[in-house]
Amino acid sequence: MDLGLAGKTVIVTGGGANIGRGITFAFVKEGSNVVVADIDEEQGQKVAKEAEALGGKVIAIKTDVTDYDSVEAMVNKTLEMFGSIDVLVNNVGWVANKLFMKKPREEYEKEIKINYLGVVNCTRAVLDHMTERKAGRIVNIASDSGRVGEPREAVYSGTKGAVIAFGKTIAKEMGRFGITVNAICPGATIPEKAGTAGKESMWAGDITVEMIPPETKERIISQYPLGRMGKPEDVANAALFLASDVANFITGQTLSVSGGFSMI
Ligand SMILES: NC(=O)c1ccc[n+]([C@@H]2O[C@H](COP(=O)([O-])OP(=O)(O)OC[C@H]3O[C@@H](n4cnc5c(N)ncnc54)[C@H](O)[C@@H]3O)[C@@H](O)[C@H]2O)c1
């Protein structure tokens, strides 16, 4: 099926690791131009180079999604390089698992800034361009924790719920400009390969599926009717769909890509 993504320009925030890396590769394989907007320049460049080997046009632009000026500069550079922005994938996210009562304030402030302010900043920065063109796709990577809550992820779950509600509101405000906004909620998606997560990734220290003790892995998998954890390409395939022409009558929706972990 032709998804109509060839030649389109796609910004993937946090494209330098794990799920964002998978999303970058998936769009490049469809023939899209991809901007890897990651705070970790080295990781961004590394992924851009790997993705270019698949035959695509990919650039890494160092971006801090929590800083509006940095986001605006990345958007302007993207427009200079490619002339348009067709798709924004708000993928950056961060969490440190802890009971709420044991969570330091600086840690939960970081979660709020990265997960929510980051999405608000990036969305705001592309909307002038998208409304002018009367076209655009925004795909927010939220989390099942934002739909059903998750112990040890209280503030993170709240930010993901906020991302879902923000996206629905923007979908209502921007529908008349031909802009769609949808959310994907991954389940546990732990890097499978060592050496793919940088220092700003929540998997820094190269936590991989193999490193999880078998009993912990069993406990996690037992919550997934499809009997496994997620892979970056599972999320990437859903992002391709929601960004594509075949999804042009879908907006304000939330799609769990979590092997049945949540069914709502
Ligand atoms: N991995 C999971 O199990 C899982 C589950 C549910 C939802 N999610 C969501 O999926 C998304 C991706 O998760 P992941 O596991 O690939 O994350 P990750 O931590 O592995 O990668 C995030 C990337 O974002 C970059 N980054 C961090 N702070 C940034 C900032 N301020 N500005 C720009 N870039 C920044 C990092 O350098 C890294 O490359 C997140 O929104 C996360 O909340 C992940």
Could you outline the blueprint of secondary structure elements for this entry?
Layout: E1 9-13, H1 18-29, E2 33-38, H2 41-52, E3 57-62, H3 68-82, E4 87-90, H4 105-133, E5 136-141, H5 145-148, H6 154-174, E6 179-186, H7 214-221, H8 232-243, E7 254-257
Parallel strand pairs: 1-2, 1-4, 2-3, 4-5, 5-6, 6-7
Helix pairs in contact: 1-2, 1-8, 3-4, 4-6
This protein binds nicotinamide-adenine-dinucleotide.
The site of nicotinamide-adenine-dinucleotide has 32 residues, from helix 1 and helix 4.
Task: Kindly describe this structure.
It is a single chain. The chain is of the alpha/beta class. It has one domain (9-257): Rossmann fold (3-Layer(aba) Sandwich). Helices cover 43% and strands 15% of the residues. It contains 8 helices and 7 strands, in the order βαβαβαβαβααβααβ. Strands 3-2-1-4-5-6-7 form a 7-stranded parallel beta sheet, sandwiched between helices. α4 links the parallel β4 (87-90) and β5. The longest helix is centred in the middle third of the chain and has 29 residues, at 105-133. The two termini are 28 Å apart. The model has no long low-confidence stretch (mean pLDDT 96). Residues 13-14, 16-20, 38-40, 43, 63-66, 91-94, 114, 118, 141, 143, 186, 188-189, 197-198, 200-203 line the site of nicotinamide-adenine-dinucleotide (NAD).
